[in-house]
Amino acid sequence: MAKDAPRRWDRRMQQRLAHGEAAALGELYDRFASLVHGLAHRVLGDEDAADRLTREVFAHIWENPDAYDPKQGSLRSWVATLTHQRAVRRLRQTESAALARSGEGTAEDLERKVRRASAAARADYIVTAMPAPLRAALELAYFQRRDYRQTAADLGVTEDEARRRLRLGLQLLSTANDAAGPAEPHPAQGPPPGYGRAL
């Protein structure tokens, strides 16, 4: 029942946007603007470019509310997928133009840069979307250099539970590279592999 509450919100939000309710766009922006901007900035590495892309993503959602299908997954995943695809496309365009102007580097260098930026953005998304207990365990292990025993003590769980949380968190995080290649699914097809598994 509680799990279905976010899906009900997603469906209702899609309906409100389809009816042209400006307040719905404001509510959607309040909820997802930091996600969109963060992903865009992670891929593009530029504040102004991330600002522009954030505006473009919300303009696209406002103009195309029916592009989201609640049956395909969560609204959060769809917004993240839309942002990720547009950011990767923009990075590829700007880097291709820079390569053409300077003549320095190769197409392979460009694709490596795009894949790295794409995987980094996907990893950020996965970490923020994973359940709080897994995220807390990973943060202790990574940022504070705690082993599983120390993590267990800090979290007040058994050592077996700490190991389980770390293992699951790392398995989710390892999917960041799964779809970091050039192929990009259409937003209506749902999230790429790294997204859905994190929810």
From TrEMBL:
Entries under NCBIfam families matching the protein: sigma70-ECF
Pfam families: Sigma70_r2
The species this protein was found in: Streptomyces longisporoflavus
Domain RNA polymerase sigma-70 region per the UniProt entry, residue ranges: 28-94
Family: Belongs to the sigma-70 factor family. ECF subfamily.
Region (Disordered): 176-199
InterPro entries, A to Z: RNA_pol_sigma-70-like (IPR039425), RNA_pol_sigma-70_dom (IPR014284), RNA_pol_sigma70_r2 (IPR007627), RNA_pol_sigma_r2 (IPR013325), RNA_pol_sigma_r3/r4-like (IPR013324), WH-like_DNA-bd_sf (IPR036388)
Domain of life: Bacteria
The protein, known as: Sigma-70 family RNA polymerase sigma factor
Keywords: Sigma factor, Transcription, Transcription regulation
Biased composition, class Pro residues, residue ranges: 184-199
